[in-house]
Amino acid sequence: MRLSGPLLISNLFDFQNRVRTNTAERLILDFSNVPYVDSAGIGALVGAHVTHDKQGRSLALVGVNSRVRAVLGVTHVEHLFHFFENVQEAQAA
Q1: How far apart, in whole angstroms, are the C-alpha atoms of residue 79 and residue 38?
Q2: What is the pLDDT of residue 36?
Q3: CATH assignment at residue 32
Q4: Where is 29: in which H helix or E strand?
Q5: Contact at 8 Å (CB) between 40 and 70?
Q6: What separation in angstroms does the CA of 59 have from each of 5, 10, 77?
Q7: Which tens digits make up the pLDDT trace of 9-45?
Q8: Overall domain count for the chain
Q9: CA-to-CA distance for 13 and 20, rounded, in angstroms?
Q10: Cβ-count burial 16-48 (b if 16+ within 10 Å, e if not)
Q11: What is the C-alpha to C-alpha distance for residues 4 and 34, in angstroms, rounded to an integer?
Q12: What is this structure's pTM?
């Protein structure tokens, strides 16, 4: 799933709906075009992780920039996610 633009409270409901309706065994979220996330966006990502984990499915993040990665680190949720440089690496893992 390719995201574009910041992941914010104003657009996270569409994101959450798309994640919830996705039934793939492995969901790859492409953050290449996401400049930043707010606290609601972080909450949505954690929710996506929890949902996938409970269902025995995996979630991967690709193309995450240093700003987004720093926010995930500061909020102590970075360890929940698998990070890859690109979609091909995530698919091969």
Answers
A1: 18
A2: 95
A3: 3.30.750.24
A4: strand 26-33
A5: no
A6: 20, 23, 14
A7: 999 999 999 998 988 899 999 999 999 999 999 999 9
A8: 1
A9: 10
A10: beebeeeeeeebbbbbeebeebeebbbbbbeeb
A11: 5
A12: 0.91
- Give CA–CA dist 86/61, Å, rounded: 9
Overall average pLDDT of the 46-75 stretch: 95
Pairing verdict, β 2-4 and 26-33: parallel
User: Which residue is listed with tokens 């954690």?
Assistant: 46
Which residues, in sequence order, are CB contacts of 53 under 8 Å at separation 6+? 59
Alpha helices in the chain (DSSP H): 12-21, 39-54, 66-74, 87-92
Range of the domain at 52: 2-92
> CA 47 to CA 74: how far, in whole Å?
18
